[in-house]
Design brief:
The protein is an alpha+beta fold. The chain contains eight helices and ten strands. The strands form four sheets. The chain has a four-stranded antiparallel sheet, with no helix packed on it. It has a two-stranded antiparallel sheet with strand order 5-6. A two-stranded antiparallel ribbon has the order 7-8.
Amino acid sequence: MPAQGSWTDPHNHYTFAGKEWDEALGLYEFGVRLYDPWAGVWLTREPLPAQAWEPRTWHRYQYAYASPISYYDLYGLAALPYGAWAALCLGQPEDPLCRSGALPPPGVLPQTHARLCATRAIALALSQQAQAGTITDLEALARLFEATRPLYERRVLFFRRYDLSAQVWDLAVIVGGLEIRFPSLITLAREGWTFLRTGRPAHPEAFFEIIDTPQDPNSPYSPYYLGFGSFQDIGFKEIYQDQSNQVRHFMAGVGLSFFYGQLGERVALSRETPGSPDYRLYVEGAFAFAHLLELYAFHTGGPPPDMGDWLRKTLGGTEGGVP
């Protein structure tokens, strides 16, 4: 609640959720909408459509599902859970891409931007821990799946809906450097026919974009990519080590297999030497993990309950996270 003193002007007018307090209006400026702290609601309707499976989005003026301790809203568009994101980002320097009030890159929806920023913050914090040597790169990968999981869970009446596809897609972009694309039916039929005849698609760029740098001009999602140096191969079994970013290779393989099946797997393997560490990491790790995710998603609508443990045991063969 607004009150005179050290919490408001003239001492500090960036208070609730880090948003600017307009003393003349008695409102907070969130970028898209104005928030009234006395009534605890937005002054205008939610501009994005409600989700039929999520009753909490049906209230068009409510802030953060009326639970601001558990949820936040960056711009006045979409409520997201704090969860592990807030815990890991305490003390982290502000990310210019995701700072409060920053607009998403052209072609990226605000909801997608907020979700990518939350996941990217977790991945960035874990990569910094891995670079500092407090955890292994493999442990960072395992924790990445565990820590981001709450961001993709939503309650539907008495059940929880888990958006596994969104999680795999986001992690493929952020740490895998791979933007998954969904071609038109005509393109899909043409490339499918070529694949049946030759065993390879004629235009793989129609299905995915390999992001080389966070400034890749071909992808609007490239700014979210952490880059090649974020992770190495510490903690992985020796057979999977090749002195490079194995977390990136693993997530790229998971994305290709999860979304495109055998087509994606053949494309990934065509770039590697049979028997090489990357080749084995794809076949024994990434593809097997993608099949596990697909199986659980098909039968239960959710992810396996022990994703982190599966990665630790399969790719590292140990339980420990410290080198």
